[in-house]
Amino acid sequence: MTAVTAFLTAVLHDRAPLSGRCGRLLASRWAYALLALFALALFLPGISSIPPTDRDEARFAQASRQMVESGNYVDIHFQDESRNKKPVGIYWLQSAAANLFGKDAIWPYRLPSLLGALAAVIALAGLARPSFGRGAALLAALLFAAALMPSVESHIAKTDSMLLLTVMAAQLALARVYLQSRAAETADWRWPLVFWIAQGVGILIKGPVTPLIAALTIVALGLADRKWAHLRALRLLPGLLVMLVIAAPWFIAISLGESNFLKEAVGQDLLPKLIGGQEAHGAPPGYYLLTVTLTFWPASLVGWFGAIWAWRNRKTPTTRFLLAWLIPTWILFELIPTKLPHYVLPLLPAVALMSALALRDAPEAMAAMMRHWAGRTLLVLWSVIGLILGFAFIVATWIGEHRIAPSGFLPILGSLLAIGLAGRAFWRGEALRAAVVAALGVLLIWPPIFGRLLPGLKPLWPAQQAMLMVANQTPDWPPSEPVAAVGYHEPSLVFFLGTNTMLTTPDGAANYLAGAKNRLALVNDREEARFREATRKLGAEVWRIDGIRGFNMARGRFENITLFWSGTPR
Fold first, then answer.
1. Which residues constitute the domain of residue 385?
2. Model pLDDT for residues 421-452, shown as the tens digit of each residue
3. 542: β partners
């Protein structure tokens, strides 16, 4: 174990590692290839097998599919409704993937998220190297890739992984500009260019978030330094022009049409989040501090200590920049009433870099913090979270389906190994070894969870079950006529059954089935009595074909969904 620690320390300090092929491999550019393979091993399992999730992912994917179907790449629609919440960037990326690989499976729509998360990990290792050192950048990328939240977002077809990439590129370019200006060096024009390109793309992905984080960082640095040389070094006027060339054309195009994008995006999406907890996602300040040990697990084992060490060394230019990246935006997110765990994802790379720098520059201080009673308390909490993550899905499989999946034991083994080996190193104050062992341990946790256990939990996916139930009753797929849906109106059902799926009322479904033979309707148990009464009044011949029971994650309740058919009884 001493040799392992010596090897890791040598890599972290950018010294020649121990002799041998492995040492030469990690000392070369192949280290980035190994990092990419590590990230892919975590991000890729489950991309094609996990059904579309409600509600955001299914809405994004369905809107992108309608772009492909309609050929309209300016306006954004979910069925007949304008979807004026986020700009067009992610829809362009998803529809491009759907054009290349097919529009009816979910995995092409997830490709931008997968590639965005992967590119963010590589960007953290590559773009951070000039400012923070090669070893620290690689370790930070390893810790970040292993964390729970990047793996989750890499599997979901929405904006956050690509937003992460734009923030990562912008912030690390800003770091280089800032550190060069502090050293009175002339900033390389390529770093401001990367910064402004990332701003333009970020606006197209998620509106003001990327510029907001950058602006708060710039202001915090200016106030802390009482100097604004870094702002001048960004080449403000040509940079703004680059940003506008990227972002403005679509905003102009959408404004010239009939869409009220800006009015609805601000009035119905942004302002409600700032004023109150939108869509039941409200939480008090402190929410992100309370949940970061989970969302950043297993890197949270050293993340807290890295942040504390950075604050103690806040006069150092590198740590000052990371604190300016982290603190102002974190406080803002805590104050905004609407809260979701992934909102702080673009801030976690700063924590990973803080941790890597602390492990490199102050291992004794890290060890001392770990031996403190607060450090030991964190270890207990971290271990409990790891055990919950390891056992959660085998327990869920038993509760939901009364079976035990053999693949469910891999996460248990991974969590026990990570907790045992990393916890032992942590207890001894061997911070670097604890961090690396914890990060590598997730290779036995995330892949089986995402690749086998989540797709196998059939009760979690009522829309998929409903689709299979419909498919068993139709000779051709997709159905020749729309399927009506009553009560259960989740977007994933539209993605499975097609754009023309009828989300209607009990009376609407009864009229639809009464209008012709061989039509289908899915009715949940809360509306079934009204539906039957409506069909009775119309004198329609409607027959119950089949039924399913599943858990609606978007609403937090079980759904009993029955399939009805108009025609002669079967």
1. 374-458
2. 999 998 888 889 999 999 999 999 999 999 98
3. 566
